[in-house]
Design a protein that fits this description.
It is built from 17 helices and 19 strands. It is α/β, with parallel strands linked by helices. It folds into 2 domains: 235 residues, Rossmann fold (3-Layer(aba) Sandwich); 196 residues, P-loop containing nucleotide triphosphate hydrolases (Rossmann fold, 3-Layer(aba) Sandwich), CATH 3.40.50.300. The longest helix is centred in the last third of the chain and has 31 residues. About 1% of the residues have low confidence.
């Protein structure tokens, strides 16, 4: 059992900030104790200040299920009554009808919940959105989570806390949606078009059609943007004494595969091993080339295997680690080929696999970072090595997956292996992109932390 006096100093500061800021963003690296702070806030507002009737927590499915257990670890929140709005229609109905203080709901059922509860009957005076980096697609078609959250923010007076360990996972473009939910468009404007005009410029675009593929901050706008939103954020990247080292392992693709990748990127079509690979757009080209670096590719006839260079390197890493290893894959053919080569590998994106991994019964764990990169705590007690079989494009998923084992409770120096094809073009560009996004997020944390320290002084 842990108590409020067990909080680190910055957690006390974060709690005070959230108590005095009705709508705020708690940005803290994974393992820094965001959930504990949020639970302390909910308890304080409901049972000390009596200003909140009920609390709603919106989170990824796995995380939504973990909140009740985390609450039991703290003396100040152990008494809170939880209901979890996931599962079958009957289970969700029972959760909503139960007598609870805190209702947790998964992202996929949040829009449904919003439709079931009329806003005039809304009694969630505190709404916590865990892993708020998911809101980065604000304003785009199909972003139902953002739309539901935005509707609630505009039409209720609920306090809102957004939380994430990756508040700037990609580009500054992704700050628009969460800031808009917190302030209704006061700081960055009410439209994405206007925000782009004020702060951004195209990074990649089609010169023939004018279509913009990605955006970047205009020169000199970084400090202006961060200053504009800094009062909404409590950001902290504490030094928890954790150690990690990146180990890059390069493989050389067969000459015909490397040549085929270059041809595909130039012509958007290539013939290799009696198969024809077509890519109608540059985005598809990158995806096909990435698969070719992996060693297999989806075709109309199924999956065509092109080489085993990364599998061979993974075998070397497994032997070198000589202990539990977490392997991050991306494509289903990655998973299938790894399982075929190493039958002992266990998929820990399943509940059974995760339970076995937590219990120390798994030596080779397979993780798709898109399925279980967030909200998993406990793997650091069993694993001290992680291997990226596929280099990801998303820094958020890369960072969050690494933080599953580089977090409080880890007693070893974590080794982060990254297998990349040195002559595959795509892998090198992805590694450069990860480094650039990590530097941008570190700068974001540094600015906001410095701003907070100045205000405290």
């Amino acid at each position: 059992m842990r108590y409020l006096h067990d909080f680190r100093p910055y957690q006390h500061d974060a709690l005070a900030f959230l108590e005095r800021t009705p709508r705020a963003y708690l940005a803290a690296k994974a393992g820094a104790g965001k959930t504990g702070v949020a639970l302390a806030l909910a308890n304080s507002l409901m049972y000390d200040q009596f200003s909140v009737r009920r609390t709603l927590v919106v989170a990824p499915k796995r995380v939504a299920k973990q909140w009740p257990n985390e609450a039991k670890n703290w003396a100040f929140s152990g008494h809170l009554r939880f209901a979890v709005y996931v599962g079958s229609p009957e289970e969700r109905k029972a959760a909503l009808a139960s007598d609870f203080d805190v209702l947790t709901v998964s992202f996929d059922f949040f829009p449904e919940l919003m439709k079931l509860i009329r806003l005039k009957d809304w009694d969630f005076d505190l709404v916590i959105f865990d892993e708020a980096s998911r809101l980065r697609k604000g304003g785009r078609k199909g972003s139902v989570g953002w739309k539901a959250m935005n509707t609630m923010a505009r039409r209720t007076d609920s306090r809102i806390v957004l939380m994430s360990g990756s508040p700037r996972p990609g580009t500054a473009h992704e700050l628009f949606a969460p800031v808009g939910i917190l302030d209704g468009g006061q700081r960055l404007g009410k439209t994405l078009t206007g925000f782009r005009a004020d702060y951004l410029e195209p990074k990649k675009l089609n010169r023939h059609t004018g279509q913009v593929y990605s955006w970047k901050l205009r020169q000199g706008m970084e400090s202006k943007l961060y200053e504009r939103i800094s009062d909404l954020y409590f950001a902290v990247a504490p030094d928890l004494g954790l150690r990690s080292v990146v180990v890059d392992r390069k493989v050389t693709l067969p000459a015909k595969v490397a040549t085929a990748i270059r041809t595909l990127m130039r012509n958007q079509v290539v013939d290799i091993d009696a198969i024809t690979i077509n890519a109608p757009s540059q985005g598809v080209v990158s995806g096909k080339a990435h698969q070719m670096c992996q060693g297999a590719i989806f075709t109309d006839e199924g999956v065509s295997v092109m080489h085993n260079e990364k599998l061979d390197e993974l075998a070397e890493i497994i032997e070198e680690v000589d202990g539990p290893l977490l392997v991050c894959h991306w494509y289903t053919h990655d998973f299938d080929r790894i399982k075929a080569r190493f039958p002992e590998a266990v998929d820990i994106t399943t509940e059974e696999g995760m339970e076995a991994a937590m219990a120390g019964k798994v030596e080779l764990a397979l993780l798709n970072p898109g399925s279980a990169g967030h909200g998993v705590d406990g793997l650091q007690h069993q694993f001290s090595a992680i291997c990226w079989f596929a280099i990801p494009a998303s820094f958020e998923l890369y960072d969050q997956a690494n933080k599953r084992i580089v977090r409080s409770g880890q007693e070893e120096t974590v080794r982060i292996f990254r297998i990349s094809a040195e002559n595959g073009i795509v892998d090198g560009a992805l590694l450069d992109g990860l480094a650039e996004k990590e530097a941008e997020q570190d700068e974001f944390f540094k600015y906001l932390e410095g701003r907070h320290e100045t205000q405290e002084a």
